[in-house]
Amino acid sequence: MTQPPPALPALAATGASGLREILLEVCSSPTWAAAVAASRPWHDRAELSAANAKAMAELSADDLRDAMTGHARIGTPKAGDATSEREQAGIRGAAPAVLDELRAANAAYEAKFGHVFLICATGRTAEGMLAALRERYPNDTATEAENVREELRKINEIRLDQLLDVKQ
């Protein structure tokens, strides 16, 4: 086993209420936060990553909705929210026509599925997010729920890694 990052033991040793608040900043699902917290201790990033994956796999449809409430609409990062702006950096400089298409595609997706289009936007361009939205739009509800679950897992993974990197 490799040496854990210095932040991991500190995070694992955080009190229950403090850890809950930290984890809710990563993912707004209280069920996910409770499951990840209950999986302590984590000896390395791989164990924390496994806890994230396990907690995401076990979320109900209601829990997934809770998790999605913490995410801005693609193409419209939350103003003043550094995480949202960083994750959606790929929309900066996009052509206005692409942003218009993204807004229209988002509206159609939301009307069909009843929630925002969720994708791990880190490292993606506006064009790439639009293409993914169009690719996923024909999905049925069950298939799309699993896509959302996987995208949330990826987002959580990135946010957990950044949390550990910042706390070092």
Automatic annotation (TrEMBL):
Residues 19-161 form the Oxo-4-hydroxy-4-carboxy-5-ureidoimidazoline decarboxylase domain. Pfam families: OHCU_decarbox (PF09349). Its EC number is 4.1.1.97. It catalyses: 5-hydroxy-2-oxo-4-ureido-2,5-dihydro-1H-imidazole-5-carboxylate + H(+) = (S)-allantoin + CO2. InterPro entries: OHCU_decarboxylase, OHCU_decarboxylase-2, OHCU_decarboxylase_sf. GO terms for biological process: purine nucleobase metabolic process; urate catabolic process. The keyword Lyase applies. GO terms for molecular function: 2-oxo-4-hydroxy-4-carboxy-5-ureidoimidazoline decarboxylase activity. Keywords: Decarboxylase, Lyase, Purine metabolism. The keyword Lyase applies. Gene3D superfamilies: Oxo-4-hydroxy-4-carboxy-5-ureidoimidazoline decarboxylase. Pathway: Purine metabolism; urate degradation; (S)-allantoin from urate: step 3/3. PANTHER family: 2-OXO-4-HYDROXY-4-CARBOXY-5-UREIDOIMIDAZOLINE DECARBOXYLASE-RELATED. This is 2-oxo-4-hydroxy-4-carboxy-5-ureidoimidazoline decarboxylase. It comes from Kitasatospora cineracea.
